[in-house]
Design goal:
The structure holds three protein chains of three kinds. By secondary structure, chain A is of the alpha/beta class. Chain A folds into two domains: 181 residues, Rossmann fold (3-Layer(aba) Sandwich); 127 residues, Rossmann fold. Helices cover 37% and strands 19% of the residues of chain A. In chain A, the strands form three sheets. Chain A has a seven-stranded mixed beta sheet with strand order 3-2-4-5-7-6-12, with helices on both faces. By secondary structure, chain B is an alpha+beta fold. Chain B is 29% helix and 23% strand. In chain B, a hairpin with a 2-residue loop joins strand 4 and strand 5. In chain B, helix 1 packs across helix 2, helix 6 packs across helix 7 and helix 6 crosses helix 8. By secondary structure, chain C is an alpha/beta fold. Chain C folds into two domains: 293 residues, Rossmann fold, CATH 3.40.50; 30 residues, no CATH class. Chain C is 46% helix and 9% strand. Chain C has 13 helices and seven strands. In chain C, the strands form two sheets. Chain C has a five-stranded parallel beta sheet, with helices on both faces. Chain C has a two-stranded antiparallel ribbon with strand order 4-5. Chain C is globular. Chain C starts with 31 loop residues before the first helix and ends with a helix. The chains are: A alpha/beta, B alpha+beta, C alpha/beta. The interface between A and C is large, with 42 and 41 residues.
């Protein structure tokens, strides 16, 4: 059935509530309102207020109690209304959720899924578009999933709920409704930690995730048209753990790499990918790895965000640069 | 039919002698399997098979000299030049340093080249280009760069490789992972090759072709003697201070696992004298008619190896401590005995020190290690009767013989050099004045 | 015109035994064995706490926070809990953990600087260093029990300092909104390292803050083990019967330093300490037991010997347990490591071997 990402996620959550009595969903405005983006539309009506409920306006409270619930044996799916608000509950995320297993020597686990929308180009107020995945790399414990399409979103969310360890599931706001795709109505999973080669190519590897995947594909098409460049596009899908094997295989083949993400440049996923390329396939490189990213500033105001978020011309420019002899 | 040509093994070599074939026609070889040993300028280099396949014909037999780019061996059709991933991965680590070593050694020991700078500018090239250059056995410094920054691109490299294939003097084989230098696994004792023909019964004389190290030594001696007008200056030094110093330092060095002979002390004493008299640390560019002053101090140490004279090199001896020099020497001498030294370890000296005291005979006249400007031989430390302040006393005397290139150095300079060396050796504590 | 009312400045703390050990309230109906268990547990807690300090001074244990003076609070809150109940504590409630069944050897092993594994059946979360976070965990555990329809109650324990943290307030708020089956205990021992209680909050008591969140509260004499026990038992019963959360403030005193790295003489009066020494919870309860004919000085001497031997034996075992493999912390993170983690682990092993 043709679905937007919202519809695919909604269906995924409904399937989870049906399959497993331990699953509970909560956050701000997710009950009667169905979530500010309607991802949880209709779930409270169908599954009851015990399992799908609104919380007070308290991010730390949401995550802290979800840690307790997860340890108890439930499978909580907590929604934080926007990824920028994850800053408010970093303590519970990074000193508690990621560490309860570590601290208890494996006695207790935390099968928690934290969902949050992020992403630019949608004219939101401050802190509503921030990309925060890079921060989580420095306090390991969360798997981080960022799907680029409805089909992947549904399968990856199912895998996230099934995972016994904490998962951060970031949903790109621009992609929520930007296109429909054929998505099976029944339950299926997509493995976490596996990137997808969306388009094969010989000359250059372009890696992206979230809303940058369509941007990369568009730039690849232009590069093919104007210079006959054969571009291999990889959708990372999971940014932690990174699919090092797929990345290394591709860059070994092409010798040229571009990585695209909305998040700032410093210490981001692109930096980690570059380090991996350096360690594992440096001697295949014909040009330095290019990173096309947000700038090392806070996310700007709506009137200026178009200059911040990577777009097709910037990605195309990077492709041209790495294609130099 | 696939041909394998003698690759450029570095050090500006033009030819190499086939020392030993490890395969024969009809043999099936695997990629990178040891195939033959060649000898260039005192280093023995093992060359691994560039393909997997069957050996068709050996083109240059043992004992013969092959030119750079000359076909050495052919393989039957169907030999695969497929690069085994493990081979290329395992040499990846070595690529950077080996290619640097190749470009460094070829840049360093060329007699021609006016610059006296120590640091050689690194060739710019992407990692993939470096790796390919290594596989092709090409020195990146030789490749003309089309990019305005001077960076060598893959295109530049491939073009150069094509041209080199056509012109054998610069040629390289498009072989897989041929190492520029490789330690030799010597199976035998490293003795000189046996005579090629047994003596006939009753013959009045017996012929033995000059091969291997002997042949190389002969060539170098001829060149040195023919080209350089040798003059010789003699002197003697009172070794008492050295004897005392060595006696004190020897047990401490032993505690650190190092055997301390006089040589490391002499090397250390030599350095300030070379710095004061730079003409002795130079060489003569015959073509350009110019003196090349070396700013590095690589001291050659003549070693009497079983197959003949070898001169391993202590690089940057001015930056090493006495104990480090002693350690290097131990390593180099052992390597010389085993013929396991690499090309950088036997090339590039700027001055040579020859200890002839151990052979029997008290002193001698050394031949300059072409293309250096001078060579110092130290003879046997012997107790002799000498006159000091009108009385006869017994002192440990070490004879010194300085052979020098009279085109560059006159008797006065030679005398001053010897006097300075002697003064320093007789009062080694003066080294401390300049110690940092 | 509206009258703004001031909450009472003084609330009388609930008490059953006065400072002398005389009965001034209604003694809970416990068996002799139960009374003696309370006493032994307090005694064991004190001696154990002192032992860890001694070990730390001998270089055999890491930083430790003494619970000297707070034994009645710690034991009283844990003793009435049932097997299916959960406990989240800070770092000063080891006596509570011992009552819940965490072995002494496990605790001593952890103070050597290694990761302890509490038996899962104790339902005790690991000791929490990050202040107040455990209060939200307790509320979450309680919410989960309610969702699952189980009979379990969650108990969260923190100190006076923790009440200033956001998480404490969010915990009370969530507890009230969701009517979670939870008991939140604030052990007010007067000091947060060197910051006294009066600088921590302008509220007259911490118990007074509960009603602000819709959570009923009790103020109790924390050095009266029977009072703490009684209050706790009632709060647990409330939660278990679906009547929601309770906030309990126990008034006690930290007789020792904040931790072995602290010097309290820098910031507090010796005179104040003496005042509270006179309110010693163990001395008080001992007097009660003897008055009741349940205990004797002779038995007390025997108990001292028994407790010391028990602790020394546990210390002996724990100190001689082999340390964990240097790379074992990779196992604590996950049991399905990525290739990257495996590489890193192998690297650690290589260097660890070189050390040996």
């Amino acid at each position: 059935m043709q679905m937007t990402m919202i519809e695919a996620l909604n269906q995924a959550l409904a399937l989870e509530l049906e399959r497993d009595k331990r699953v509970v969903i909560f956050g701000e405005d997710i009950g009667a309102n169905g979530g500010v983006f309607r991802v949880t539309e209709g779930l409270q009506r169908k599954f009851g207020v015990q399992r799908v409920f609104d919380t007070p306006l308290a991010e730390s409270g949401i995550i802290g109690t979800s840690v307790g619930m997860a340890v108890y044996g439930l499978r909580p799916i907590a929604e934080i209304q926007f990824a920028g608000f994850l800053f408010v509950c970093m303590n519970q995320l990074l000193s508690q959720a990621t560490r309860i297993r570590f601290r208890s020597g494996g006695a207790y686990t935390c099968p928690l899924v934290v969902r949050a929308p992020y992403g630019g180009g949608v004219r939101t107020p401050e802190l509503h578009s921030d990309s925060v995945e890079g921060l989580f790399l420095q306090s390991p414990g969360f798997k981080i999933i960022i799907p680029s399409n409805p089909y992947d979103a549904k399968g990856l969310l199912a895998s996230a709920v099934a995972d016994p360890e904490p998962v951060l599931f970031l949903e790109n706001i621009k992609l929520y409704r930007s296109f429909r795709q054929e998505v099976p109505e029944d339950y299926y999973t997509i493995p976490i930690g596996k990137a997808k080669v969306v388009q094969e190519g010989r000359d250059v590897t372009v890696m992206a995730y979230g809303a940058m995947v369509p941007v990369a594909l568009e730039a690849a098409k232009k590069a093919q048209q104007e210079a006959g460049t054969s571009v291999e596009v990889i959708d990372l899908r999971t940014v932690w753990p990174l699919d090092e094997e797929t990345i290394v295989n591709s860059v070994t083949k092409t010798g040229r790499a571009v990585i695209v993400h909305e998040a700032p440049k410093a210490g981001g996923v692109g930096a980690e990918v570059t380090a991996i390329i350096n360690e594992k396939c440096l001697f295949s490189l014909l040009q330095p790895v290019a990173r096309v990213t947000g700038y090392d500033t806070p996310y700007p105001v709506p009137g200026q965000e178009d200059y911040y978020v990577p777009n097709v011309p910037r990605v195309l420019d990077a492709i041209r640069r790495v294609m130099e002899p | 039919m696939q041909e394998f040509r003698l690759p450029d093994l570095g050090e500006g070599m033009h030819e190499a002698e086939i020392r030993r074939w490890l395969v024969k026609p009809g043999d099936s070889v695997k990629l990178d399997q040891p195939m033959l040993e060649v000898e260039t300028d005192k280093a023995v280099v093992e060359i691994p098979a560039p393909v997997s396949g069957r050996v068709a014909e050996i083109k240059v037999p043992e004992g013969k000299v092959a030119q750079l780019g000359e076909v050495l061996v052919t393989f039957e059709n169907g030999a695969t030049a497929s690069s085994s991933p493990s081979a290329s991965v395992s040499v990846q680590r070595g690529v950077q340093s080996d290619v640097a070593a190749v470009s460094a050694s070829s840049a360093g020991s060329n007699g021609s080249g006016g610059s006296a700078t120590v640091t050689r500018p690194r060739v710019l090239a992407a990692p993939a280009v470096r790796k390919r250059a290594f596989e092709l056995g090409i020195d990146l410094a030789q490749v003309p760069a089309s990019h305005p920054s001077g960076r060598v691109t893959m295109d530049d490299l491939e073009k150069f490789a094509q041209q080199a294939k056509a012109a054998p003097t610069q040629s390289v084989q498009a072989a897989q992972a041929v190492p520029a230098v490789m330690p030799v696994q010597t199976n035998g004792t490293g003795a000189a090759p046996a005579p090629t023909k047994p003596p006939e019964a009753g013959a009045q004389e017996e012929r033995q072709a000059l091969t291997g190290l002997r042949r190389r030594i002969a060539e170098r001696m001829e060149r040195s003697w023919r080209t350089i007008p040798h003059a010789v200056a003699f002197d003697e030094l009172d070794g008492s201070a050295l004897v005392a110093l060595r006696q004190q330092l020897k047990p401490v060095a032993e505690q650190r696992g190092v055997r301390l002979t006089y040589m490391p002390l002499l090397v250390k004493l030599l350095i300030p004298v070379l710095k004061e008299y730079p003409i002795f640390n130079a060489s003569f560019d015959e073509e350009q008619r110019a003196i090349i002053y070396k700013r590095v101090y690589h001291i050659g140490i003549a070693v009497d190896a079983p197959e003949g004279l070898l001169v391993p090199v202590i690089r940057d001896a001015d930056r090493l401590s006495i104990i480090e020099i002693a350690q290097r020497m131990e390593h180099l001498i052992a390597g010389a005995q085993k013929r396991s030294l690499t090309i950088p370890e036997v090339t590039g000296s700027t001055f040579t020190l020859n200890n002839i005291g151990g052979f029997g005979g008290s002193s001698g006249v050394p031949i300059i290690n072409y293309p250096e400007a001078a060579i110092l031989a130290v003879g046997r430390l012997q107790e002799k009767a000498v006159v000091v302040n009108g009385s006869i006393v017994v002192r440990s005397i070490m004879p010194l013989t300085l052979s020098f290139d009279h085109r560059l150095i006159d008797g006065g300079a030679a005398g001053r050099f010897l006097a300075r060396f002697k003064a320093l050796a007789e009062h080694p504590q003066q080294l401390m004045l300049d110690m940092i | 015109m509206v009258t703004i009312q001031q909450i009472e400045d003084t609330m009388t703390p609930y008490q059953i035994l006065d400072v002398e050990g005389n009965v001034v309230g209604s003694v809970p109906k416990l068996s002799t064995e139960q009374f003696l268990q309370l006493y032994r547990a307090m005694y064991l807690g004190r001696v154990f706490s002192n032992k860890i300090i001694a070990l730390q001074r001998q270089g055999r244990a890491t930083t430790f926070g003494s619970l000297l003076g707070q034994e009645a609070s710690a034991v009283g809150l844990a003793a009435p809990m049932q097997a299916q109940d959960w406990l989240t504590t800070s770092y000063r409630e080891i006596a509570s953990l011992i009552v819940r069944g965490v072995p002494l050897t496990t605790l001593i092993y952890s103070f050597r600087g290694f990761t302890p594994v509490f038996p899962k059946e104790t339902r005790c979360l690991p000791v929490q260093i990050v202040i107040a976070t455990q209060m939200l965990h307790a509320v979450g555990l309680g919410m989960a029990a309610k969702i699952a329809g189980d009979n379990a109650v969650a108990v969260g324990v923190c100190g006076d300092g923790a009440t200033s943290e956001g998480d404490f307030n969010e915990a009370l708020n969530f507890a009230g909104v969701f009517q979670a089956p939870v008991v939140l205990v604030v052990q007010n021992n007067g000091w947060a390292i060197s910051v006294p209680r009066r600088l921590q909050s302008a509220a007259p008591t911490f118990a007074a803050r509960g009603p602000g969140f819709g959570v009923p509260s009790v103020l109790v004499d924390g050095n009266d083990v029977l009072a703490v026990y009684d209050v706790m038992q009632q709060a647990l019963a409330r939660a278990r019967s679906g009547h929601g959360p309770t906030l309990i403030e126990t008034l006690t005193y930290r007789l020792g330093a904040h931790t072995t790295a602290d010097d309290p003489t820098r910031y507090r009066d010796a005179a104040e300490v003496e005042v509270w020494k006179a309110k010693d919870p163990i001395v008080r309860f001992k007097r009660f037991l003897i008055q009741r004919g349940l205990w004797s000085e002779e038995q007390d001497q025997q108990l001292i010997a028994v407790v010391e031997e028990e602790i020394n034996e546990a210390a002996n075992i724990a100190l001689n347990m082999p340390p964990p493999a240097p790379d074992s912390f990779f196992d604590y993170l996950t049991d399905s490591p990525t290739p990257r983690l495996l590489e890193q682990r192998a690297e650690l092993r290589r260097f660890a071997q070189q050390d040996q």
